[in-house]
Amino acid sequence: MEIYELNAAGTEVTRTSPLLQRHDQRVCGNRIDGTLRQDLGSHRSDWSFGLDVSFNRQTTYPSYNDDFKSVVDPDRFVTEYFYDIEGIPSRYDPKNRHRVDTVAAYLENRTELTPTIKLITALRHERVKLHYTSWDDADAVDERDISRTYHPTTGRIGATWDISPQVMVYAQYATAADPASGNPGQRLFLHALRQYQADHGPAAGDRQQGGLPGRTGQCHGGTLRHRTQEHRHQRPAETA
User: Fold this and answer.
1) What pLDDT is attached to residue 75?
2) SS (H, E, C) 28-45
3) DSSP class per residue in 94-117
4) Range list of H helices, the chain
5) Would you say the pTM of this structure is higher than 0.70?
6) Measured distance CA(68)–CA(143) in Å, rounded
7) Most buried pick, 22, 79, 198, 200, via CB within 10 A?
8) What is the per-residue pLDDT for 77?
9) How many angstroms separate the CA atoms of 63 and 70, rounded?
10) Dist. CA 148–CA 189, nearest whole Å
């Protein structure tokens, strides 16, 4: 990959910042879950519960040359072989590795308050360990092997209302926690999210509603009508 810039006259293209990148990612895990159907007085109440375990490993192999610059004619150009550019090796050298180990237990309940209104609540507690290893000389020595562990508890509360056999509306408040990604300066942070959501869609019988995707469940329904979401950093439970 390179950056190209065409001059105002359209006669020259400047090539800069060649980058060779490779991502090697492996994810393994499993989920054990169960359901329980019962009545709370005269109200039907369904429970779901389970345990999530996942191990995520990602190694990146970037090679780049920030000092490289080449100017070519856009109509009649000749360029070197990409691997002949200084700083771009023909092999992949690992520069850093991210590990995310997660163990989580969750519990969710849906109770029918009336034949058309259902209350949905959920809790999820996690142990999230983030580990970063670097072989890049650009990183400071004390930043080449660091880890942090978090113990977030998240959840949601919401309700659905079947206005008619064809139309359902719902609203919810949910929280979630996800590892930061993309910004190396935040590689060991855990984002805490809060979400307020309201929506409508076709009625779907016993389908459960609500939740942030991934961490606290899946959102279903029609087109999103209103949602606000806030982000903040969680504090690590421990640093090693």
Assistant:
1) 85
2) EEEEEEEEEEEEECCEEE
3) --EEEEEEEEEEEEEEEEESSSSE
4) none
5) no
6) 28
7) 200
8) 81
9) 18
10) 8
